[in-house]
Write a structure and sequence with these properties.
- It is built from twelve helices and two strands, in the order αββααααααααααα.
- By secondary structure, it is an all-alpha fold.
- The chain has a single domain, classed as MetI-like fold, CATH 1.10.3720.10.
- It has a two-stranded antiparallel ribbon with strand order 1-2.
- α2 crosses α12 and α4 crosses α7.
- The longest helix is centred in the first third of the chain and has 35 residues.
């Protein structure tokens, strides 16, 4: 075994210097809070973090009996089911179109990516105005077309679809950029050979683009599912507490905020977060097992 040279030692030291800040941030901001949250979920937290009372699994038993949790779980899944597939499909279509040589390609790429640059709170407030039932722009345009007004975010039946549309709009550009990066890695020779064989544009996407882009699609699917299951800011900014549609729209993270910071029941809020963590882990595990059947790593 050859001895380690001085240069290798220096490179190892510099490597550790670059890694330590990232590892420290990961441990302090992610790993430690996870264990603190798990520990806190077994307590009834007192005022100002003092006088905590150990209650064991009582917080988790309360989750089963709490109807709001069941409703919020349904709302969260409904949002994820609406937002994730549609955002992926639309972003993929846009990426394929903008990967071709068209006039104004750079302009359109910038326009579709702009929602990612805008602050989520500001974007939610703009959409709240657009959705306004009395003087919103969308209902104004519908009235010009002779269509009656729609209660986009105040219908007692819930407004998960309206919230999901904003979510799709906000993440469309980010997903598109990821797909564009994957598309540019696919050799053009494949498409030229398929065109010579008589394959049309649609068939080329099916037999070439989708299989070769499947790793990117899988990555986007996993990350978008995780993000969708954690939806909070759109609901918080667009729905008033007195909104009759809020009970049928609020998500698990919204309930976590409500119990932890409004009702000061941080132990119960921590139990909600752990429930969400377990659900996300389960969904990610299912996606990981299924991907072996359709993701092709070349």
């Amino acid at each position: 075994m050859s001895a380690i040279t001085q240069r290798q030692k220096e490179e190892a030291v510099w490597g550790l210097c670059f890694i330590i800040p990232t590892v420290a941030g990961l441990v302090i901001l992610n790993i430690i809070p996870i264990f603190q949250t798990i520990w806190q979920s077994f307590f009834k937290v007192g005022d100002f973090g003092r006088g905590n009372m150990f209650v064991g699994f009582q917080n988790y038993l309360s989750l089963i009996q709490d109807r709001q949790i069941g409703r919020a779980l349904v709302n969260t899944f409904a949002y994820a089911i609406l937002e994730t597939p549609l955002s992926i499909l639309l972003a993929l279509i846009l990426a394929i179109m903008l990967n071709r040589k068209i006039v104004g390609r750079a302009f359109f790429r910038t326009v579709f990516f702009l929602p990612m640059v805008a602050a989520p709170a500001a974007a939610a407030m703009v959409w709240r105005w657009l959705y306004n039932g009395s003087f919103g722009l969308i209902n104004f345009l519908l009235a010009k077309c002779g269509i009656s007004q729609v209660n986009w975010i105040s219908s007692p039946d819930g407004n998960t679809l309206s919230i999901a549309m904003v979510g799709i709009w906000s993440c469309l550009g980010y997903n598109m950029v990821l797909f564009l990066a994957g598309l540019q890695e696919i050799p053009k020779d494949y498409y030229e050979a398929a065109e010579i064989d008589g394959a049309g544009i649609v068939r080329q996407q099916v037999i070439i683009t989708l299989p070769l882009l499947s790793p990117v699609i899988y990555f986007v699917g996993v990350t978008r599912t995780i993000a969708a299951m954690q939806v909070f800011d759109l609901i918080f900014m667009m729905m008033d507490r007195n909104n009759p549609a809020l009970p049928k729209t609020q998500s698990l993270v919204y309930l976590f905020y409500k119990y932890s910071f409004v009702e000061n029941n941080k132990g119960y809020g921590a139990a909600i977060v752990i429930l969400l963590l377990l659900i996300i882990l389960l969904l990610t595990g299912i996606q990981q097992s299924i991907q072996k059947n359709w993701v092709h790593y070349s």
